[in-house]
Structure formats: C-alpha cells, structure tokens
Design a protein that fits this description.
mainly alpha
C-alpha cells in the first residue's frame, strides 16, 4: 500500500471513529450479525482492518452520515437562505395536491412547455 492509501485509510478510520462516537446507537437494542458493519466499525476506526468498498454505503447508513462525509469529500451547503423562489413555491404546492390531480397539472405544464397548449 502506498503512502497516499495509508493516509486515506487512517483518515477514514478517524472519520469512522468520530461518526461512531457522535451517533445515537440504536443498534445496541437490536441484535446484529458478526458481519454487520457495526460489529466491525471499531476495527476499521483504529486501522486494524480496511473496510471493503462494498460496505461503505452500509457503514454510512449505520452511522447516519453521508457517504461523501465518510469518505472525506466536502459536504455541499443546503443552498441559499431566504424565501424560496416563486416557481419553487408553486412546485411545492403542486406536490401537495391530491395524487389524482397531479397528473392533470403535470400534463398542462408539459403542453405549455412543448408549445402545444390547448
């Protein structure tokens, strides 16, 4: 393993340990198998074992963090603050309509956008 990989796994272990400490541990109330990521997290966190890539998503779910955060990628901000744009507010209102009415509104929008409004 090259020095860059060693540093990556050391940093990953530190992020796993921090996420493990900060989470509310609900898994202690329910039994877990020996193959579950929650059983292996301590080994990954201290660098005794390297987690397989296939377990990264499952570990993130177990720890209630995003995969990006676990891998050390910058987490994007939630967006602009302030009132939502009018179009966004209208889309949210459409989403709150009864499901039976939503297709009609969507079809009307598609017709207008296609230039074939009735």
């Amino acid at each position: 393993m090259n020095p860059g990989e060693q540093q990556f796994f050391k940093d990953l272990g530190a992020r796993l340990a921090a996420a493990r400490k900060s989470r509310v541990c609900r898994s202690r109330r329910s039994p877990t198998s020996s193959a579950s990521p929650s059983k292996r997290l301590p080994q990954y966190a201290v660098g005794r074992a390297r987690p397989p890539v296939s377990m990264v998503v499952q570990m993130a779910r177990t720890l209630h963090v995003g995969v990006e955060e676990l891998l050390g990628e910058p987490v994007r901000a939630a967006g602009k603050r302030g009132p939502a744009p009018k179009l966004q507010q209208q889309m949210e209102r459409i989403a709150q309509l009864p499901r039976a009415k939503q297709p009609l509104v969507i079809q009307m929008l598609e017709d207008v956008l296609a230039g074939t409004s009735h």
